[in-house]
Structures are given as C-alpha cells and as structure tokens.
Amino acid sequence: EAQVTQNPRYLITVTGKKLTVTCSQNMNHEYMSWYRQDPGLGLRQIYYSMNVEVTDKGDVPEGYKVSRKEKRNFPLILESPSPNQTSLYFCASLLLAGGGEQFFGPGTRLTVL
Amino acid sequence: QKEVEQDPGPLSVPEGAIVSLNCTYSNSAFQYFMWYRQYSRKGPELLMYTYSSGNKEDGRFTAQVDKSSKYISLFIRDSQPSDSATYLCAMSAWDAGGTSYGKLTFGQGTILTVHP
C-alpha cells in the first residue's frame, strides 16, 4: 500500500530536549516536505527536499533542521524545542512529474512544555 | 496579504444542503488548484484537482476555477454528515515543461459540519 508514515504520532517533551520526528514514504517520490498546522493559520511549509541531499527552507524554517540521505526518509529535527513549536506536523511526498498531488502522513502532535 | 485566502467559516448546514467553499489567490503563477479534505486527527487527503478555468465534477463535488478573477470554489451537493471535515484549498505552480515545483500553498481551511 502506497503511504507516508510518521513516528511518533504523539509526543510531549520539555523545552530544549532535542527530538526527531521520522517520515518515510514507499512511493519512490522525489519531493518530500514538512508542514505544521496551527488553528487559523492552515498548513505552513517548514522545509522541503527536491531529491536526495537537496533540501531548502519553506515559509517557517526557524528552529528546525532536516536531512535527506535516502530517497524514502526525511526526518524533521528540533535541536532545542520551544513552546511555540507546539503544533501538528505533517510530512508529505510528491511525484514531481505526476501533476501535483501530495500524499500526506497521518500527522505528529507535538507538545513542548 | 496572504497568497491564498479562504473563507474561514465555520459552516454548519443541514443534511442535503448545497455547500459552497471559496478561496481567492493573488499569485498569477498558480496553475494547479486542489481541494483537500481533512478529517479530525487525520492527514489531508486530495479530494479534487484541476488546472484549467471552468468546472470539474466528481459525483456530488464540483470544483470551479476562475483564473481571471483568481477565485476557486468547491460545491458539495446533497451534503451528508460524512462530509463533515475541514476543507483546504491548495495551489501550486509548474514549470514550462509541466513539472510541479512541489510547493503547495494552502488556505486557512474551512470547518464544515453537516448535521442530520
């Protein structure tokens, strides 16, 4: 089954404690992206990757890092989380020549105390 | 000004009603228009997409695009309680070769509740 998986689905942590949210897709998509979703603000792009070893900032990259060492994986790293990073995070992937449909993961709800 | 503005709602309608969801945009480079549906505690899933002005129908759903006015709509006929969800419009641009740039710009989302 074609899918995007994220782990963990729920995470409560404390300020400053480094964490990683994993994302994996099995569709051989070149493009992967991270979004955060906040009430009244919709989905905002954090970082994206056009292919292996190619990453770039989205609209709200501050406080986040990413890496793309393999095509299927695109982890999101919070080196020193702060309470304003409490949000719902989605990973998505896209076949660039496929017309534009992005497939989304199930989401990770992060709370930073 | 945001690139994409969506009527915020929330909308509450009786079962069987016709629902109209709307977005406006300012970036003329957008060529691919999508509507995503998001159920509570789930990721968004693509409902409909189009890349030309006019109407596109899929069952009870019609997506409408007016590029001259930079306005898109989603109509839901005979709405059902199972249609209760958050609806997000999204847009992207393509290069001259028809390959997506990848980035999606979303509206804020409209929460729809259809009550029996």
Description:
The complex is a heterodimer of chains A (113) and B (116). In chain A, strand 4 and strand 5 form a beta hairpin. Chain A is 0% helix and 51% strand. Chain A contains no helices and 11 strands. In chain A, strands 2, 4, 5, 6, 9, 10 and 11 form a 7-stranded mixed β-sheet that branches. A 4-stranded antiparallel β-sheet of chain A has the order 1-3-8-7, with no helix packed on it. The model of chain A has no long low-confidence stretch (mean pLDDT 92). Chain A is globular, with a radius of gyration of 13 Å. By secondary structure, chain A is an all-beta fold. The termini of chain A are far apart. Chain A has strands at residues 4-7, 10-13, 19-25, 31-38, 42-51, 54-57, 65-66, 76-78, 87-94, 102-104, 108-112. With 116 residues, chain B is mainly β. Chain B contains no helices and 11 strands. In chain B, strands 2, 4, 5, 9, 10 and 11 form a 6-stranded mixed β-sheet that branches. Chain B is globular and about 45 Å long. Chain B has strands at 4-6, 11-14, 19-25, 30-38, 45-50, 54-58, 61-66, 71-76, 85-93, 105-106, 110-115. Classes of the chains: A mainly beta (113), B mainly beta (116). The interface between A and B is medium-sized, with 26 and 26 residues.
Measured by residues with Cβ under 8 Å of the partner chain's Cβ, the largest interface is: A-B, 26 and 26 residues
Approximate strand percentage of chain B: over 45%
Query: Largest sheet of chain B, described in full?
Result: 6 strands, mixed
Helix percent band of chain B: under 10%
